[in-house]
Amino acid sequence: MKRFNERKEEYFNALNRLKEALEREVDDVVIDGVLHRFEFTFELAWKTVKDYLEYLGMTEKIGSPREIIQLGFKQGIISDGEAWVSMMLSRNALSHLYDEKTSREIYEKIKNNYVKLFGDLKEKLELV
Q1: What pLDDT does residue 110 have?
Q2: What is the Rg, in whole angstroms, of the alpha carbon atoms belonging to the chain?
């Protein structure tokens, strides 16, 4: 439980930093910062869900982010499994991204959709 609580706090802090970046006036540097903070927040989010599932005693089929998302959805921790998979795919695309247009599209998804999904997860985890 200690590991889960520590990771949960790290996740909450990362989400707050992402939200702070999204409140800034948009320019190329801010967008790059948001994308970086998004990657970091996503990593902490799925790992926090993993730690929680392990705390609940669910250790089978725990490995990849996709498996964690699917199991988290089945357990009611994640509210929209398809949107989380889309978010994971956006995060994966950033690792191989050299296209400004795509990075701007992902920025818009973060601002308009993904930050809400992160917030929904935070609300669920606050109850634990």
Answers
A1: 98
A2: 14
